[in-house]
């Protein structure tokens, strides 16, 4: 067995050869260290640490139980699992190389990244419905709807993650391999197609949100001379939420769109460099989500500031901020 044949790559494919089908390794045969895998592992560590803070903050704070924070918690949980999946991929690839472990690891990554994308879509839906049904948003119906969205999000994501372990992989045929080993090309095409559908829905909902905000702004402008200054606070809060969504949508698009398009067009014969170059920015979406979304929320800021004040000094001034929508 040659050195190239003995390597098990999560991202597979070379310019001149197809992926090796001889995937059995002895305990003494380990692949050479790939710098790209090191970068992915470091990224996974940062992703896990950031999102663990968000999950812990929401879980241990009773006041953060609103539907919006449940969706943020779902997003942070998905990104946390994605970070752990990247770390496990590195450890298992270089310490315990085997087909079953690789299938489990890639299944975890598919589940977590799918749940992350679906959680972002659910947050967009929740934002739109909160604007369209402002009078009835704070009701039991909203809580039920949020739980249903979370159930569908994680059930669908788990199903997509289980498909490789259930046989939809390319371990038995190199011609069926995608740019991400051992995912079958049809499976990765399905994931990319689902991403494009979610992206289109988010664009449509965002356009509707903008129309609602513009209509609110026009109404406020017409009544400005007859209303007290505090009446515009709802509009300011709504505008902040829309700006947050615009920022997330822009980051989401720039991070995931290149990999989704490449997954549809490429196959296992393409150089692995192209896969790493498009996959690494996609993982950065999970790294940026807490910075852009959770940590910009003033309620979460208050909780984190109070925790820091309690941990480092009882004499540090803790400033309160008015609550705002995400």
Question: In words, what does this structure look like?
Answer:
The protein is mainly α. It is 67% helix and 0% strand. The N terminus and C terminus are likely disordered. Helix 5 runs antiparallel to helix 6. The radius of gyration is 22 Å and the shape is globular. The protein contains 8 helices and no strands.
Key attributes of the depicted protein:
0% strand, mainly alpha, 326 residues, disordered C terminus, globular
Explain the layout of strands and helices.
Blueprint: H1 35-59, H2 67-95, H3 99-132, H4 140-162, H5 185-222, H6 233-265, H7 272-294, H8 298-312
Helix pairs in contact: 1-2, 1-7, 2-3, 2-4, 2-7, 3-4, 3-5, 5-6, 6-7
Shape: globular
Strand content: under 5%
Taking all Cα atoms into account, the compactness measure Rg is 22 Å
The tally of beta strands, per DSSP, is 0
Helix content: 55-70%
User: Largest sheet at a glance?
Assistant: none
Q: First CA to last CA: what distance?
A: 56 Å
The number of helical elements comes to 8
Which class do the helix and strand fractions yield? mainly alpha
* Poorly predicted segments: 1-28, 312-326
**Quaternary class:** single chain
**What's the average pLDDT?**
78
Order of helices and strands: HHHHHHHH
